[in-house]
Each structure stands twice: as structure tokens, then as C-alpha cells.
């Protein structure tokens, strides 16, 4: 066997050592690159492009395998994962109630006539499974929780009741009845993979950047005529489906629409929803409206007449009131009109300066969400 001279051996050992070190270096640099570029990527709606399914049961999480779990857009569980037996039946019935609420609880509802004819799904698209369409991803995991609007600890059923009373301008069905229990079973099933407090992509609606001016109903009317009227109607009353029980195109204002205590009556919620979901058929990957148009059409629709709800008791802690809550009192000097239409930046700035001068670090923010819709 051939023996290397001593100095040659040293050279070989040295080269081997450097190669090991060098490859370690590469691995480190690679890891740092991956962590800065993918792990901490902000959860903006431009940050990812999930495949959007049109049906809740055709969702698949396969497309996100390469993305770190926390930043991937949430997808609903597969329908095939609904368990067999009584629980499965309950989950399916719950989903049916969300998709076709009016058949059961609308003006001609077969269980009770306690709401305006809208379906939960009209705003919680695809039975609450679509990204940036008020989906139910994080709902179940985070309740019970302290509600800013109620000022108390809200149970899951309190939150459901909010949407019945405000968005459906009606009454809550029996909280202990089969229907509500089935809706809760559905919410639990839909949100089963989400942990309390977990950040998930694509929940609620997107928050659009604030304009420097007030949102303008007159400009919004032009947007409405061009992009919305064909379905929702010149009078905003929508159009009933053939069965006359639910809406083909739901109303945007008037007697059968959400009342002025609803989440959609806040401009930020409306604009964010519409930007990523309307005209019907689009999603956050291919919006049609500019942000400005979304704000203006929100101003137009929410300046039209609709049912009123007394809401003096909402937000007992004024510091927790969202800046675009349309009714006073407020913890600042800005008018009701400015709180409804903007400009919002001065209100945000004022909120920051007062909380800072009071030594509060976590105070009023630009937009609260979560506890406020319905
Ligand atoms: C092609 C028809 C169509 C067009 C155009 C359209 N929508 Fe809709 N919109 C719908 C349908 C259908 C729903 C209900 C979706 C569901 O139930 O799955 C809906 C739901 C809504 C909702 C939530 C439910 C409600 O009635 O409050 C809002 C708000 C809304 N649309 C606003 C708009 C705005 C603003 C525009 C114009 C930028 C617009 N839509 C354009 C069909 C349309
Ligand atoms: C007119 C539109 C609209 C309709 C119709 C509607 N909702 Fe909502 N809902 C909202 C908005 C807006 C929010 C607030 C979303 C947010 O800020 O997270 C919300 C929030 C919720 C939440 C809390 C979600 C969370 O993650 O905290 C639940 C639960 C809910 N709605 C259930 C229902 C049910 C059940 C119905 C039917 C009985 C219904 N909604 C009908 C607009 C609507």
C-alpha cells in the first residue's frame, strides 16, 4: 500500500477540513436565507397564491406543502373528513344552515321566521371557507373571549347571535336547539386544525390602506353602476332566487339588508370584503377594484337607507371602539361623519398620541377586528 509523504498527508487533511467547514458555512447561509425569506414573511394577501376552490369540500392543502405552516393560507378540512354517524350529520346540517339560512329562518322559514332573508354564506363565502371572505378558520378556537363590543366574555353562541341580530337583522334561534348545536358542530369541524391564538393566513377580510380623503359616496355610485348594479340592482334590493326563499343576489341596502349595527356597516370591513370578493367570482389573486374604488363604493352603499339598531351600549370601553364605528360617543373629538367615512389617518394618529401620552403601549389601533363584526 502506498504511503503518502507526511507533508502531502497534512495537505489532504487540511483540504478535507476546509471542505467540511465550507459546506457547513453553505448550510448556515442557506438556513438563514430560508428563515428570513419564508418564515417571517408578512401575512399580506399578496404574500401567497393559494389555489382557490369554489366549493368548501374541494379544498386541498397539498398546494402549501412547501410553505411553513404558519404563513400558509388556511384551507378548510376535506369534506371526506367529516366523521360518520350522528356527529357527521350534525356538521352537515350546520353547514346547510349557514349556506341556506333563509330557508329555515327567513321570512318564509320552515323552522322560524326570525331574519331578513339573507344567508350567513352571503358574507361568509363558501360556507365560511374562502380566504379573505370572513371565513370561520379561527373562530371556534378563540372562543369564549372578551368582546370589545359587548364588554363581557362572549360564548360561541353569543357571537352567532350577534350576526343573527345585526347582519340578519333578526333574532337568535334557541341557543340549545338542534340548529344552533349543529352550527356550532360545523364551526368546530371547520376550525379543527387551528389553535387558540394562532395566526392564520387569509382570515377575516383584508384591511385596505386608508385614503388621504374621506370615502366618497358620489364617486361610489359610479363604481356601483359599473360593477355592482347588474346583480344587486339599482335599488340595492338584490334579486330573489327562483324558489323565492333565498336570494340569488343578496340585498345591499333597504328593509331586507343588514342593519347599521352590523360588521358590514363599518367601511373598512365592507371595502376589504368587496376588494377581494366582488364582483362575484373573483378572489384575492385577481381583484377588479382599486382600493380607492372599494372605499368609495363602501361609502355609497353604507350611505343608503337600512334598518337601524340601537347601539348606545356597544363598546362600553370607548378605547376599544374601532375608529370606523359609525356612531358615537368616541374617545376623541372627531365627528361621527369622519368616523364613518374618514379620513381615518388623523384619527389613527390621534389615538396613537393619546395612548402614548397616557403611557399605554397597547391601546387603540387603526382597526380592531374579530370582536366587532356580525
Ligand atoms: C355577478 C353578480 C354580482 C356582482 C356584479 C356583484 N355581486 Fe356582490 N354578491 C353577489 C352574490 C351572488 C353574493 C352572495 C354570495 C353567496 O351567497 O355566496 C354577493 C354578496 C355581496 C355582499 C355581501 C352580502 C350582502 O348582500 O351584504 C356584498 C357586500 C356585495 N356582494 C357587494 C358587492 C359590490 C359592492 C359589488 C360591486 C363592486 C358587487 N357586490 C358586485 C353577486 C354579485
Ligand atoms: C351582511 C354580512 C354578514 C352576514 C349575512 C353574516 N355575517 Fe357573520 N360576520 C360578518 C362580518 C363582517 C364579520 C366580522 C369579521 C371579522 O371582523 O372577523 C362576521 C363575523 C362572524 C363570526 C365571528 C368570526 C370570528 O372569526 O370571530 C361568526 C361566528 C359569524 N359571523 C357567524 C355568522 C352566522 C352564523 C351568520 C348567519 C346567521 C352570519 N354570520 C351572517 C358579516 C356577516
From TrEMBL:
PANTHER family: BLL4482 PROTEIN, BLL4482 PROTEIN-RELATED. The chain crosses the membrane at residues 12-34. Residues 215-305 form the Cytochrome c domain. Pfam families: Cytochrom_C. This is Cytochrome c domain-containing protein. Gene3D superfamilies: Cytochrome c-like domain. The keyword Ubl conjugation does not apply. GO terms for molecular function: electron transfer activity; heme binding; metal ion binding.
Amino acid at each position: 500500500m502506498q504511503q503518502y509523504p507526511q507533508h502531502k498527508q497534512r495537505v489532504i487533511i487540511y483540504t478535507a477540513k476546509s471542505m467540511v467547514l465550507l459546506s457547513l458555512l453553505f448550510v448556515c447561509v442557506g438556513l438563514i436565507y430560508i428563515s428570513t425569506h419564508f418564515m417571517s414573511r408578512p401575512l399580506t394577501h399578496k404574500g401567497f397564491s393559494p389555489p382557490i376552490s369554489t366549493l368548501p369540500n374541494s379544498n386541498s392543502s397539498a398546494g402549501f406543502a412547501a410553505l411553513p405552516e404558519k404563513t400558509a393560507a388556511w384551507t378548510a378540512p376535506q369534506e371526506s373528513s367529516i366523521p360518520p354517524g350522528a356527529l357527521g350529520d350534525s356538521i352537515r346540517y350546520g353547514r346547510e344552515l349557514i349556506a341556506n339560512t333563509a330557508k329555515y329562518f327567513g321570512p318564509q322559514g320552515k323552522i322560524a321566521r326570525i331574519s331578513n332573508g339573507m344567508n350567513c354564506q352571503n358574507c361568509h363565502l363558501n360556507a365560511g371557507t374562502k380566504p379573505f371572505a370572513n371565513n370561520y378558520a379561527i373562530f371556534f378556537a378563540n372562543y369564549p373571549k372578551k368582546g370589545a363590543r359587548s364588554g363581557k366574555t362572549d360564548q360561541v353562541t353569543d357571537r352567532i347571535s350577534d350576526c343573527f341580530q345585526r347582519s340578519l337583522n333578526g333574532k337568535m334561534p334557541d341557543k340549545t336547539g338542534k340548529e344552533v348545536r349543529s352550527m356550532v358542530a360545523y364551526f368546530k369541524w371547520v376550525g379543527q386544525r387551528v389553535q387558540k391564538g394562532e395566526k392564520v393566513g387569509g382570515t377575516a377580510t383584508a384591511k385596505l390602506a386608508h385614503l388621504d380623503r374621506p370615502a366618497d359616496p358620489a364617486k361610489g355610485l359610479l363604481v356601483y353602476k359599473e360593477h355592482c348594479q347588474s346583480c344587486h340592482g339599482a335599488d340595492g334590493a338584490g334579486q330573489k332566487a327562483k324558489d323565492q326563499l333565498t336570494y340569488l343576489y343578496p340585498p345591499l341596502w333597504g328593509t331586507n339588508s343588514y342593519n347599521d349595527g352590523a360588521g358590514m356597516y363599518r367601511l373598512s370591513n365592507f371595502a376589504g370584503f368587496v376588494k377581494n370578493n366582488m364582483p362575484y367570482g373573483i378572489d384575492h389573486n385577481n381583484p377588479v377594484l382599486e382600493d380607492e374604488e372599494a372605499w368609495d363604493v363602501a361609502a355609497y352603499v353604507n350611505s343608503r337607507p337600512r334598518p337601524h339598531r340601537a347601539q348606545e351600549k356597544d363598546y362600553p370601553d370607548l378605547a376599544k371602539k374601532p375608529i370606523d364605528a359609525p356612531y358615537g360617543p368616541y374617545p376623541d373629538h372627531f365627528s361621527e361623519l369622519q368616523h364613518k367615512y374618514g379620513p381615518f389617518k388623523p384619527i389613527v394618529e390621534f389615538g396613537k398620541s393619546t395612548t402614548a401620552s397616557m403611557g399605554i403601549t397597547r391601546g387603540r389601533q387603526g382597526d380592531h377586528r374579530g370582536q366587532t363584526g356580525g
